[in-house]
Design brief:
The relative contact order is 0.06. This protein has a domain at about 1-165: Neutral Protease, domain 2. It has helices at about 1-10, 30-45, 55-65, 85, 90-105, 110-120, 130-135, 170, 185-190, 200-220, 225-250, 255-265, 270-280, 285-290, and strands at about 120-125, 125, 140-150, 155-160. It starts with a helix and ends with a helix. The chain is built from 14 helices and 4 strands. Helix content is about 55%, strand content about 5%. Helix 1 (about 1-10) packs across helix 2, helix 3 crosses helix 5 and helix 5 (about 90-105) crosses helix 6 (about 110-120). A hairpin with a 7-residue loop joins strand 3 (about 140-150) and strand 4. Belongs to the peptidase M1 family. This is Thyrotropin-releasing hormone-degrading ectoenzyme.
Length: about 290
């Protein structure tokens, strides 16, 4: 996968960076952002089963970086040759790709594609320069708050402010879910992800695992860690059981001894009985005996 993405990325540079070159180094994010964006689109086109087109992983990574107080605008001024290496960072690559993805969704894919060919600057009655300057000339991204008003018309108030990870949040309020952010208490995100035991897609699990990893570190060696482990294990077991059953039913066992041993050691009695029956009704038992 990595090799395919690198090849696609470098092929994209034949257009974004070589044939069409930014005027100055401060716009390096244009060529690197487009190449990074299309390395996912191109890889998805070549190998659809990898499910690469959503760029969700890129978005989550750059939000972690760009939410820090020491982040910087994606477009950086370059005055000396020694400044050039500095602009080739994850903000240029990943935020660049995320912003281009956002722009493509705002304009619509057909118009976005025509705009790339003609280098047009307008789409859907939206001033692209005005929209993108807000994202490229200042660091970070907004957090949007929607509050329901106490009125009969069921109206809401929408506000936004720049999101910055709050490193002091844990000190001020130890009940906060994420010590770096300070917006949500533990119960809200944990309630949201309670459905994961029924989720079989990779991307929701991947997104949740990032946040759960941080919470696991926060609660480690505290009296509440066992409760947290039990809660997450319910969701993980649900996914693992369905995946294990799929492997066994579909016969997709390149290393069957690993699947069987893992199932026996980690799953409950029902899955153990299922594996035991499957073991006796297949030729895998001969394979396992040969491994001994």
């Amino acid at each position: 996968m990595e090799l395919t993405m690198v090849v696609v990325h470098e092929i994209c540079h034949q257009w974004f960076g070589d044939l069409v070159t930014p005027v100055w180094w401060e716009d390096v994010w244009l060529k690197e952002g487009f190449a990074h964006f299309f390395e996912y689109i191109g890889t998805e086109f070549l190998v659809p089963k990898w499910n690469m087109e959503k760029l969700t992983d890129v978005l989550h990574e750059v939000m972690l970086l760009d939410g820090l107080a020491n982040s910087h605008p994606i477009s950086q001024e370059v005055f000396e040759a020694t400044d050039i290496d500095r602009v080739f960072d994850w903000i240029a690559y990943k935020k660049g790709a995320a912003l281009i993805r956002m722009l493509a969704n705002v304009m619509g894919q057909p118009l976005f594609q025509r705009g790339l060919n003609a280098m047009r600057r307008e789409g859907k009655d939206i001033d692209i320069t005005e929209v993108m300057d807000r994202w490229t000339l200042q660091m970070g991204y907004p957090v949007v708050t929607i509050s329901k008003n106490d009125s009969l018309d069921n109206s809401v108030t929408i506000s936004q402010e720049q999101f910055v990870y709050d490193t002091d949040a844990k000190i001020r309020n130890p009940e906060l879910f994420n010590k770096r952010a300070g917006y949500l208490t533990q119960n809200i995100p944990l309630q949201i992800i309670s459905y994961l035991s029924q989720e079989s897609e990779f991307l929701p699990w991947h997104a949740a695992s990032r946040a759960l990893y941080q919470l696991d570190k926060l609660l480690d060696r505290t009296k509440d860690h066992s409760l947290f482990s039990d809660y997450t294990k319910v969701s993980q077991d649900g996914l693992a059981k369905r995946f294990l059953r799929w492997l066994l039913h579909a016969g997709r066992l390149s290393e069957p001894h690993i699947v069987y041993c893992t199932g026996v050691s980690l799953m409950d009695e029902d899955v153990w009985e299922f594996i035991w029956m499957k073991f006796h009704s297949s030729t895998v038992n001969i394979y396992l005996l040969n491994k001994l």
